[in-house]
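Researcher: I need the complex structure. Ligand is pyridoxal-5'-phosphate. Inputs:
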Amino acid sequence: MAHRTVPFLDLSREYRLLGPDLLRGIEAVLEQQRFILGEEVTALELQAAARCGVAHAAGCASGTDALWLSLAAAGIGPGDAVLTTPFSFFASVSAILRAGASPVLADIHPESFNLSSQAVRECLNGSAPPAAKAGESAANSAAIRAVLPVHLFGQTADWDGFEALQREYVRPPLRSGPEPLVLIEDAAQAFGAAWDSRPAGSLGQAAAFSFYPTKNLSAAGDAGLVTTDDEAIAERVRLLRQHGMRRRYHHEIVGWNSRLDTLQAAVLLVKLRFIDEWNASRRSLATRYCSLFEQAGLADRGPYPERGVVLPTTHPKATHVFHQFVIRVRRRDELKAFLDQRGIGSEIYYPVPLHLQPAFAFLGYSAGAFPEAERAAREVLALPIYPQLTPDEQELVVTGICDFLS
Ligand SMILES: *Cc1c(COP(=O)(O)O)cnc(C)c1O
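Model: Output:
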């Protein structure tokens, strides 16, 4: 009997469902020839803003650019430091540098894998443990003006904790006077997620979404979006994404070219109709994974793995969209190799924490600076989860892990 394989992600299944709708949307753009900021871009911005519960949304070229645009439009730049997590995709930190600011890192919470508001508090109070203080040199004693939590794997970060910090902590009055801490969401993995029923994208002063093809809401290429309730921020994003011009060839500020393609907006408009249904499917797949592992007697009571696997947990206030279903397990690399051999896809998000990336060596952090992020990087494994994953494929995944562990 030939082994059945389980692809980690199979986007062709989605295409089989949506093909005719997508082609109609793309054809309409080709016929209209409005490739740059056409009407589909505006329609997507309006619908995305409504879905995220904010007044404004502005499309851009990628999630990475959405992060940079959010920071720059919120007035974060040289002389400012931005606190974020070492356990994320590279862009969470590189976008801070691109904005001219200095990244400062704080450790994660071992259950959610999200930036710990407690660790951020210690950083703001200057009472972080000595190892974590290494980054202060990198920040050149710049004042921490913003916090950039990431809603990792589709679960919103502890927003109560960050808003409490925002109320308590006011950055030193370097400019015109005391300014409150700015909160920017990296919502690249969290379209449709929520905290306390407030949608991701409406929690911070601005939020950055990515529609990279593997994200839970995805384009047919690169695309991104900034959401905000702040009209001035929205206005600046629109200026910055198009060379600082409102009127053609009249440049008010130095921006860049980071527009959302009309073709990508047409694709996203089709998919946006399904996002709630898809996120609900992801949640029920997650629930089913959990019960399969429980039934197999493999569920460890976390936060750290022992004999079995630690299953993902959802904070009572978080609406998780399971962009990824991430377990923790010992001998993770051996398990991944075992699953690979059976044709069962899995991925490691992320194998190297950002403070240990060669590109960020100049930030001055060393191994041991963020023990939770470093341990997570050794233990996490993402399993296949997408709306078209079948029940028997899920069973193959769990059986494969059972066979390895027993
Ligand atoms: C994907 C991702 C980004 C970057 O998005 P791109 O569209 O690939 O530029 C940023 N942050 C996180 C957490 C991501 O997952």
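Model: Summary of the prediction. Residues 62-64, 88-89, 91-92, 150, 186, 188-189, 210, 212, 222, 224 surround pyridoxal-5'-phosphate (CB under 6 Å).
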